[in-house]
Amino acid sequence: MSVTTPEAIQEFFTRSDGSYAFARWGRPIAPIVFGVEDETLSTVKGAIEAVVTLAGHTMAETDPELGSNLMFFFFRDWSELLEVPDLDRLIPGLKELVGKLDVADANQYRAFRFDDQGAIQAAFVFLRMDMALSKVPAETLALGQAAQVILMWGDRAFVDASPLAVLPENGATILRPDVAGIIAAAYDRMMPPSADDASHAYRIFARLQG
What we know:
The chain contains 8 helices and 9 strands. By secondary structure, it is an alpha/beta fold. Helix 7 packs across helix 8. The chain is globular and about 50 Å long. The two termini are 20 Å apart.
């Protein structure tokens, strides 16, 4: 999809209940990855770094409050999350959430925490490696997840279309140009860290025209 109107951008941050909700990171991102081999670990961190660089944001080795503020979990069964020490303190209602995701046969879920300005303070990415996700190349999976966690998008933003595209000339997987443009514009230093008014989409659109 080509973003040609503010309304198209607005759709990316409109939730199922019709509300507009946007947030970007307000602090350097300090990622950690659980449940993968070292080779995949470097792939995931490389994808995060690529998207953070696109945004003009920064990364850090550690977060002063949390140690790591972006946590990726790779696993085979949702129930494994209940065995992670102290995760229930970071994710309120973890047991109920795991039950819902298990019943829904979901293979991914993202949760965010926010600071007092509404900016993203921490994010948690849960990936249940079912048959579908296991078939996705690690680089593709990592880039798609990094794109979806650099901003808080609407819950329907990528239901019908991936944030990624494949270059026909060489088969390389990249961020869709419209998605990449929105990320870069959303991190413009004059833009707010969070927004709940759809007029915010017009400000992103104006920066895409520059």
